[in-house]
Structure formats: structure tokens, C-alpha cells
Hints:
This protein is an alpha+beta fold. Helix content is 43%, strand content 9%. The chain has helices at residues 12-19, 24-50, 93-113, 162-176, 184-206, 264-267, 273-286, 294-303, 313-328, 332-343; strands at residues 7-8, 66-70, 80-84, 125-129, 138-140, 145-147, 216-217, 232-233, 242-243, 247-248. It has a 6-stranded mixed beta sheet, with helices on one face. A hairpin with a 3-residue loop joins strand 9 and strand 10 (247-248).
Amino acid sequence: MTTPVFCTIVPPHVLDKLAQAEDPALAGPARRTLQRDAYERTQRRLTTVIGAPAVAPLAAAGKPHRTVYDARHGTDLPGRKVRGEGDEPGKDATVNRAYAGLGATFELFLKAYARDSIDGSGLPLNATVHYDRDYNNAFWNGEQMVFGDGDGEIFLDFTIPIDVIGHELAHGVTQYTANLTYFGQPGALNESMSDVFGALIKQYTLGQTAAEADWLIGAGLLAPRVTGKALRSMKEPGTAYDDDVLGKDPQPATMDDYVRTGRDNGGVHINSGIPNHAFYLAATALGGHAWERAGQVWYDVLTGSELKQDALFTDFATLTVKAARARYGDGEELDAVSKAWEQVGVRTL
């Protein structure tokens, strides 16, 4: 049985920092976003207890079934339907970006991994845009995607970076496969899986090789006044932003700087920098398209039924080494994966 979790793209520690800003134009939206996130998180827990509503009929095999809704700055989900599968683009760029992002995510999983939608069985992909006012987040709530418009001061429209869309939908893939517990190291692996596949969706859409990619998560999301380039960097964790209001990116790149904290579900958005960096190292060592070999190994582990819900970094790393050997033998793939984990200080058994 899957346990849906409420997963946001902007971590609580970023919003906490923002909520303490002296400027009410910055602090106000951050506080409201934190309150809304807390409410949605509680709703998700209740749904887990009482059961989720029935899902709409499945799409034809191998075809996406997308629906985009407009919350019109309210919080009732899903909102008013504004674009269905096959409908022509409208005038609302946010709706069009959400629709395209759902399609790009569907396409990567189908073409690269023969996976039919996020559950592997043609699950319809639903997204709601224009959620709440000045809402500084995007989330997967176990059933659908939701995007805020941002406050325009710190964050712009959350449909702008396609990897944000891919990241949140990848939480759904994890939910339907390994179902990693959303706390501590398994939670950081859960977050890292979404960053990995979010980055791969962006690279696939742009036709980029591992060497050409920027390896940033959420590039284009930060408003011009922010000193930063993205929410996270897989290439150089800890360097995505360093801003007087947002603070400094706290992600570690190796186990030497592993962060022990009770905040953010035990640092799920922070320590995810370590497995993120391992993937970057493996993918760039192999070269070519990262979704092909490195991505295939990570996908094999996520969907291979050996990854436990409470897996630690060492467990995951060990399985990637095993998966690389099983699929590619004792070649450069195995070498790249093994060395990547060694470089970030995670042992493989």
C-alpha cells in the first residue's frame, strides 16, 4: 500500500528564514505559505487515515491524460478545469507551462524507462495553478500537483522551471514504488529521487548531455532581487543561493558535512544534497545523456522492490552498485557509480 506524503519544492527552512524578514512584503507571503503548507500536510495525514477518493478512469496505454485546473487564487482543490488532454493552448502561460511539464514528465518515464505514467498504469495527471495568493510553493499532495504564483519579490511563478514540475511528479513515482519514508535519510533519498528525475526531465526536454546541463533545481524561480541562481545545485550543493534575506544554501555535498536536525522532517531537503551529488558525479563520469545509464541505474533501484521504505544512504548506494553490475556488468557504469558514492563519503556494502 502506498502512503501519500505532502511534498513541497521550497523547503520549510527557506520559508522560515523568509518569514523572519523585516519587510512585511517578504515576511507576509512566507508566513501564509507556511500556514497553508501546515494545513495541507494535516489534510494529507487525514487522507492517509480515511482513504483517498477514487481516481478517475485510466488513460489509453502509453498516452498521457492531463487536466489543468485554475484555483483562481483560492485553496479549494482541484478548482475549475481550464485545459484537458488534447486541448489547444490558451492565453494563460501558466496553464500552458503546467500542461507541457506534465507531458514532458510523462514522456521521459515512458520513453526512457517504459513506465506508463507515474504509477506505471496510466494514472491521469492533474495539476492546479494559481493556487492561493502570493503562495510561495508547489507541491504534490499524493493525488495531484499544485502550483503557486509566487510573491513576485522572492519567488516567481512555480510553473517556470520544468524541473519543479518533474520533481513533484517524481514524488508520485516514489510513492507508487519504494514509498520511501519522509524523514531523515530515507526522506532525503525521497527528495533526492525527485531532484534526480526533475533534472533528467529538464535535460531530456532540452536534449542536453550531462556535460551541457546546469544541474540546478529551480533555475528561473528566484526573483531578480535574490542573490542566487536556483533552489539547489546537484553539481555544487551549498552554492545555489547566498542571500541577505534567504540566507545561505545549507546543502552538504558529502557525508563530512551531514546535517543533523529535527527541522524539515530531519533535514530531508538539506541532506538530499549528498545523494544528489553522487548522481551528478556518476552521470558526468559516464557522459552522454544522464537519463540513459546513470538514470537507468537509479530507476532500477527505485522500482526494483529491494529498496526498503526506511533505506539509509548506504543501503541505496549498495543497491545502485548491484543494479549497475546487473544491467551493465563490470564495466565503466559500475566504476562510475562506485566512485561517485566513494567521493561523497557513503559506504557501499
